[in-house]
Write a structure and sequence with these properties.
alpha/beta; 2 domains; nine-stranded mixed sheet; 20 helices
Length: 544
């Protein structure tokens, strides 16, 4: 692959939602993206469930579902327990990635900041990893000297913008925005530099800023959000739209450096929407008698909770870590689970699911297999019937049995029911026996939705067509098809129907045996690296 017509560039916009992109391109707020849509195809790109970045980007790079590649949360837990075994990373992916398959096919790759690419391993080309990279990583890039070159040219090159200070209230919005824009611009400059100075057949960069921006400032762009302030928007503009305009200019810079026939894809791993309330599914399960808490005699629990919430002696609340305060809160409000009598429980928000405490799967399984389906049906009915008492809105939009969606060796470890929350709601990781609905515990006003976006143009791709909704799993086989490489038979996606008929006739789809590696499922990074990443996940609320 040497000609421009054979080269492929992918720009990832983490969390870019289909509906926002459609609205703003139609209004010509994003002229570069609108031009790509006129020159090619575009449409909704549905994420995997659970619709969060580790599961989604791993599915993107393998073309397989979480039940095959094994990443359905930021961490892997011991079966039937909430005990964290390890943090998931590039070493724990089961299956060969797109980078490996392209490299084995003789294609040179350049990959920057795609989530779940650390630890970096040798590739046929170069790689800069993602925000899960420890700050003192021993080999932060491949080749290792690339990190030094980027820092020399672009200063203190950041793998990822850090939102922790803003989320913790130690940083104001103005500084938050300044840092986010600076990181985004630095990433764009380094990517454009590598695009022009390195040899590549396949080039990809992910901008994770949309996800970060929308988590905290979604209320700027959503007039229905309770925190939306029309006066603030009138005074300073829609901060989310302003950031997308910057991204649109970056897309234009990429397009200007590419030959017209080069295939260019713009892809998001999931969408976004409002976040107003947390739904405590464990309270529902308690009310149904399916989740049983141990009795711990603590007098006047409510009084103790009020004391903790009000205490400010010597700024004690600021001095205590969020993790410690959470543990104290849980000790008072949520005694330990009685696993021997518990039949179902909600997973972490990032898992978006309900686990059945199935006998034989974990150390304290309480549900025999002959009760499994009856119990799941009852929980599905209860979840779909939940309404928000303040407005009557349905809280859970859809519930899937996991086998309705997936097949694979890790299916048994996944939540037994996978939830799509209604707009405005996020699943809580709480054992609060008093309340089914909780106020957000962090500064976030936006949360993930399943509906991402796809735009593609270039030689052989039809023009000006909105395609039917596609799956994120379809992107990897489509990229392999464009590289004229065989598609592994165990990929769950298909080649997208976006090509001209004459092109399809000249380029038949090739296939080969499966790509699953069945390799090591434990990370090879050292304990200090893993602990740093765990703390980063705790700061973001992804790990307790």
């Amino acid at each position: 692959m040497n000609s421009a017509a054979q080269k492929v560039v992918v720009i990832g916009l983490d969390g870019a939602p289909y509906d926002l992109v459609r609205r703003w391109t139609a209004a010509n707020e994003l002229p570069a993206l609108a031009a790509l849509m006129r020159e090619g195809v575009w449409g909704r790109l549905d994420s995997v469930l659970p619709y969060q970045s580790v599961a989604a980007w791993t599915s993107f790079m393998t073309g397989t579902s979480p039940a095959k590649h094994g990443h359905f949360d930021f961490v892997t837990r011991a079966p039937g327990t909430r005990t964290v075994v390890h943090v998931n990373n590039a070493d724990t992916i089961d299956g060969r990635t797109l980078w490996t398959l392209l490299g084995e096919g003789g294609r040179r790759i350049g990959v920057l900041n795609v989530p779940v690419t650390y630890p970096v391993r040798p590739v046929n080309g170069f790689m800069v990893p993602d925000w899960l990279t420890p700050s003192l990583a021993r080999s932060p890039t491949y080749p290792p000297k690339l990190a030094e070159e980027l820092r020399r040219r672009f200063g203190d090159y950041l793998f990822e913008f850090r939102s922790g200070p803003y989320e913790a209230g130690r940083q104001g919005e103005a500084q938050f925005l300044k840092d986010l824009y600076q990181t985004t611009r630095g990433r764009a400059e380094s990517a454009l530099y590598l695009l022009e100075t390195q040899s590549w057949d396949f080039f990809m960069v992910v901008f994770t800023g949309p996800d970060t921006m929308q988590h905290f400032l979604w209320h700027y762009t959503d007039p229905t959000h309770p925190r939306h302030d029309p006066a603030a928007v009138a005074a300073q503009g829609d901060e989310v739209l302003k950031y997308y305009r910057m991204l649109d200019r970056i897309v234009a810079e990429f397009r200007a450096r590419l030959a017209p026939e080069t295939r260019l894809f713009v892809v998001s791993d999931h969408g976004f929407g409002p976040f107003v309330k947390l739904f405590n599914a464990n309270k529902l399960l308690m009310d149904l008698g399916l989740l049983v808490m141990e009795r711990v005699p603590v007098r006047n629990r409510s009084g103790l909770l009020d004391l903790i919430e009000r205490v400010d002696v010597l700024n004690l609340r600021q001095r205590l870590s969020r993790r410690l305060r959470h543990k104290v809160f849980n000790w008072i409000m949520a005694p330990p689970v009685d696993w021997s009598r518990t039949k179902a429980y909600s997973g972490a928000p990032t898992e978006n699911g309900i686990y059945i405490n199935l006998r034989g799967r974990g150390p304290h399984g309480a549900v025999p297999m002959d009760e499994y389906e009856v119990l799941r049906n009852a929980i599905i009915s209860a979840l779909l019937a939940v309404r928000d008492p303040e407005n009557g809105h349905q809280v859970v939009e859809r519930v899937y049995r996991k086998e309705e969606l997936y097949r694979g060796p890790y299916l048994g470890q996944m939540p037994d029911l996978l939830l799509v929350m209604a707009p405005g709601y996020e699943l809580a990781e709480s054992f609060d026996a008093r309340r089914m609905f909780l106020a957000p515990t962090r500064r976030r006003t936006g949360t993930h939705r399943p509906e991402g976006v796809l735009i593609a143009c270039g030689k052989g791709i039809v023009q000006g067509v909105e395609i039917a909704p596609a799956s994120l799993l379809d992107v990897a086989p489509t990229l392999l098809y464009l590289a004229e490489l065989p598609i592994p038979s165990d990929m769950d996606g298909r080649v997208l129907d976006i090509f001209e008929e004459a092109f399809r006739r000249r380029h038949p789809v090739l296939s080969t045996d499966g790509s699953r590696a069945g390799g090591p499922r434990t990370p090879v990074w050292d304990q200090s690296e893993e602990e740093e990443v765990k703390e980063r996940l705790r700061q973001l609320g992804y790990l307790e």
